[in-house]
Amino acid sequence: MAKSPLSKENVCALTVNWNQADKTADCLRSVQQIDGGPCHVIVVDNGSTDNSREVLGREFSVPWLELVELKDNLGFAKAYNIGLKRAIDQGYELILLINNDVILRQDCLTQFLKAAATFVHDGLFTAKIYYLDTQKIWTVGGNFNRLTLEVTGSYRGQEDIGQFAESKQIEFAPLCGVLIRAALIRDVGFLDENFFIYYEDMDYSWRIQQSQWQMRYIPEAIIWHAVSASSGGQDSPLERYWMGQGSGRYFRKHAALWQLWLLVIPYRFISAGKTTLRLAWRGDWASIIAYWLGLFRGWSTGRSITQPPKWLFPTKRKGSQK
Hints:
The protein is of the alpha/beta class. The chain has helices at residues 21-32, 52-59, 76-89, 108-118, 182-188, 200-209, 237-254, 257-282, 285-301, and strands at residues 11-17, 40-46, 65-70, 94-98, 102-104, 122-131, 137-139, 143-144, 151-152, 168-170, 177-181, 214-225. The chain has two domains: 8-227, Spore Coat Polysaccharide Biosynthesis Protein SpsA, Chain A; 234-301. The protein has nine helices and twelve strands. A hairpin with a 6-residue loop joins strand 8 and strand 9 (151-152). The longest helix is centred in the last third of the chain and has 26 residues, at 257-282.
């Protein structure tokens, strides 16, 4: 019997693991408990150096899970592209793209599928995403400021008291919990592999805006997210380094020359100053150094794949993922 294009049988969930077997296992358990049982899942192990592969292989030696093992940590975008190509090659028309540090509510996929059947011109759907173990909003999607290319309207940190109950079209969605049509990927392309981590979601959302496709926020689809878990947590040196570097790639790629010098660079300089003052107030000098090193490298090269120096992160392994 042929698979219905909007059935769970035609959905492939995709996540990436890097030295975080426990978090990935929690995520997979939430997928295992979705309505009607799990869909097919691809886990791309991004060159883990701990016992992730043994732990995941032992607990999830099941037909619905496919473990793809990479020799090295290739970064968020490249690892996800490997998984996306694999899912599309296997004939899946819907891909549930999730970070390994998210937890899905039991009916999350059901709600996504209802939305995909209803809003046929939308190619990407994002959930209402809370901070882990809270009812505080991490994202409900957002829009772009066309002058500064920044994201607006995320409502981050607000307590959910019902004010985000309406579905709406959006222009930006983080890629930590989205359902994507394979048709959109075939039109827009895969993730930009010149982003190792961070800003690849802003880049992809901006590219979708230049296409025929639209994006939509689905409030009935609920996900919880442990923010920046794989890069050491929010405002950690590693997170600041890659955020700084990714910003250079994103804004240099998409801003017109006049826009870059008259609007984007002044705005980003003020933003970087505020971030520096916030970190200095807390005494996070390592994060400040990492942040400005990342900014210099990203803005001077227009790329975001340069690994941090060992002297800055003596206890960190190569790279990170979200």
